[in-house]
Design a protein that fits this description.
Uridine Diphospho-n-acetylenolpyruvylglucosamine Reductase, domain 2; 4-stranded mixed β-sheet; two-stranded antiparallel ribbon; 10 strands; FAD-bd_PCMH_sub1; FAD-oxidored/transferase_4; oxidoreductase activity; FAD-bd_PCMH-like_sf; FAD binding
Length: about 240
């Protein structure tokens, strides 16, 4: 769309063209006619003003496009499609005027695993089993498929480990160890998101909070509810409906 100020200027030019200037002429010819220079002057000023505004609108689009190019991370390992409000900024020239528009869509870029992160080993798995117990440390490929795939089946990771803590202390111990070992972590709730934010990109450790689904307290006076991180919103709504 053309800038609002540009549209306002166009309306002003149109108004002058249709109605003429409301004030009496400053100069006239000997025959009594209005000087042509006095009529042309408002058009010239309006044209210059419109040109400057359109020029700055165009440069704004160029800056957005350059910023988007700088944000792209190029690599060799995996293509990830992500949502970006700056993606596909367009600049169209019509009759010498820059028309600005913004397109919301997906931009596919190549990303690669950060070499600063460590890779999982058997010693790490044994440490997590000591915290959670063997049954809450999942390495089965079939069970990992669900954790590695998003709800829309659009994104898929390659994590080899799924952890299922039951308390805040266990989560704290897991993250403390992962921070020490520099292991990448992805927290996951119900994995029902539509933008792929809850699935790993590479081999991150998935920390599932699905077992932490208790409602701790509810204050009817203040309306404050305290619950664990894995609570399902539908269950919370049902609880609140029963509380009135």
């Amino acid at each position: 769309m053309v800038n609002r100020n540009c549209r306002a200027t166009l309306r002003l030019v149109t108004l002058i063209n249709r109605q003429g200037h409301p004030h009496p002429p400053l100069s006239s010819s000997p025959s009594g006619h209005i000087s042509h220079s006095y009529i042309i002057l408002p058009f010239s000023i309006a044209f210059v003003f419109l040109t400057v505004l359109c020029f700055y609108s165009g440069t704004g689009i160029d800056a957005c496009w350059k910023q988007l190019q700088r944000n792209n991370v190029h690599g060799e390992h995996k293509i990830v499609s992500f949502f970006s409000p700056l993606a596909s900024s367009l600049k169209t020239r019509q009759w010498g005027v820059n028309i600005q528009s913004r397109c919301y869509g997906s931009a596919s870029v190549l990303v690669q695993r950060n070499p600063k992160f460590s890779k999982l080993n058997d010693e790490d798995v044994r440490y997590f089993e000591g915290i959670l117990g063997a049954k809450n440390v999942i390495q089965d490929d079939e069970k990992l498929i669900t954790a590695n795939t998003d709800w829309m089946r659009k994104y898929k990771g390659s994590s080899k480990l799924l952890l299922q803590p039951r308390t805040t202390d266990q989560v704290s111990e897991i993250l403390k160890y992962c921070n020490f070992r520099c292991l990448a972590v992805v927290p996951q709730g119900g994995n029902t998101g539509l933008v792929g934010g809850s699935v790993p990109v590479f081999d991150e450790v998935v920390v599932s909070l699905s077992a932490m689904s208790k409602i701790i307290s509810f204050d009817k006076v203040s309306g404050i509810l305290v619950c664990e991180a894995g609570c399902i919103l539908e269950n919370i709504i049902s609880f609140l409906d029963n509380e009135g």
